[in-house]
Specification:
Elements (H helix, E strand, L loop, with lengths): L3 H26 L4 H16 L4 H13 L2 E3 L14 H10 L4 H4 L2 H4 L1 E9 L5 E9 L2 E10 L8 E5 L6 H6 L10 H7 L3 E6 L14 E2 L1 H9 L5 H17 L5 E6 L1 H13 L3 E5 L22 H4 L5 H6 L4 E7 L4 H9 L1 H5 L6 E6 L7 H7 L1
Parallel strand pairs: 5-6, 5-8, 8-9, 9-10, 10-11
Antiparallel strand pairs: 1-7, 2-3, 3-4, 4-6
């Protein structure tokens, strides 16, 4: 009796070897990727005996999916529904992707298709513009404050870096570093249009709890031939094209990253006025420390160079104002000492330069009185 169990095991092993050998011969005779098919057969047998832990896969996929959602949502109505899958997120990100080579002439290329105003109950009105670039559709969103767009002066504000900045601007948060720019709009009796960047504020790409980290979008765009910065500036440029079809009295303003965006938009749009507060220095052509939350557009300084920028701007019918704060540090703090940008534009009649006593803010009292 003690030999029966070993004999049974030996017979089963022999049977398995004969079956698998026969399958291998059959596969070889039929010239069908023998190793691959044989491997699949063995794997199928193994999985019958040891089924994979599906729950473990689902947990890991969910953890991977949710790892990108780390930034706060605003307490307000949202445009996009909750994202449930990686495929949904990929589709949403792809819809914003503007090939970077199209950015540098996007004002001339884009076509306004539809304009609508979304009226949220008890909330600020949102301007929605559907536009196309080479038959690809894009949508721009912005807050519309104080008035409708008519032939009077309009002010477009590009928000600077930071989470949900447009929401803080329109709610006039006194602790927000943009505070004061809407005072300028009120004093000048203009409509105010505040661009909402993709994934910010009401445009959050979210999982119901948090919104997607900006770095995920920046990497996605750059690695696919686009640029998150170029995409949202193009959204602002679409607003400008719509405004210019109604009124030529347009002022573009931005602080910090928004200042850089305001300058780049102005180079194509040619507004009446452009306010670039702590957003650009000629020193950036030499060295530019920045992270994912700053302007990143491949080949930007090949298209706009230290040699051609001054000439491009001098040929525009736009009055430019560059401002900096004495209490700033790093690049713009250095600018207040060196006056590098002021000296660079010293012969340009349409460029003004102002240094104020504060930090990284809009000098709105000066703007109200002098610009």
């Amino acid at each position: 009796m003690k030999y029966i169990k070993p004999i049974i095991i030996a017979l089963l092993t022999l049977f398995f070897l004969i079956v698998t050998y026969s399958i291998g011969i059959t596969i070889g005779l039929n010239r069908v990727g023998s190793y691959a098919v044989f491997n699949e057969y063995v794997l199928a047998i193994y999985n019958k005996i040891n089924p994979p832990v599906v729950a473990n896969y689902i947990d890991k996929e969910l953890a991977y999916f949710n790892s990108g959602f780390s930034e706060d949502l605003i307490n307000d109505q949202l445009i996009y529904d909750k994202i449930h899958t990686i495929d949904q997120l990929d589709s949403l990100l792809e819809s914003d992707l503007l090939p970077v080579e199209k950015f540098f002439s996007v004002y001339d290329q884009l076509e306004i298709l539809e304009v609508d105003t979304l009226q949220f109950v008890g909330k600020k009105n949102i301007l929605k513009i559907l536009y196309s670039v080479d038959s690809t559709l894009y949508t721009s969103y912005s807050y519309l404050l104080y008035d409708t767009i008519d032939n009077s002066t309009q002010l477009l504000i590009f928000p600077g870096s930071g989470v949900n900045q447009s929401f803080s601007i329109v709610n006039e948060d006194p602790n927000n570093y943009h505070y004061g720019i809407l005072e300028y709009a009120k004093e000048k009796k203009t409509s105010a249009i505040v661009l909402i960047k993709p994934n910010e504020g009401v445009l959050a790409y979210h999982n119901g709890v948090k919104k997607l980290s900006e770095s995920y979008i920046v990497n996605y765009s750059i690695n696919r031939g686009g640029s998150y910065s170029a995409s949202y500036i193009a959204d602002g440029i679409a607003i400008c094209k719509y405004v210019n079809s109604i009124s030529k009295k347009l002022t573009i303003a931005g602080l910090s990253q928004g200042g850089t965006a305001a300058l780049l938009a102005s180079l194509q749009v040619e507004p009446e006025k452009s306010i670039i507060s702590s957003g650009f220095s000629v020193l950036q052509f030499e060295i530019e420390p920045s992270g994912h939350d700053q302007i990143i557009i491949p080949n930007l300084y090949k298209y706009y160079t230290k040699n051609n920028l001054k000439e491009i701007m001098s040929n525009l019918n736009t009055q430019f104002l560059f401002t900096y704060g004495e209490k700033e540090d790093l690049l713009f703090g250095l600018e207040t000492v060196t006056n590098t940008t002021k000296n660079y534009f010293s012969e340009s009649d349409n460029v003004q330069y102002y240094i104020h006593i504060n930090g990284h803010v809009f000098p709105y009292n000066y703007l109200i009185k002098n610009f």
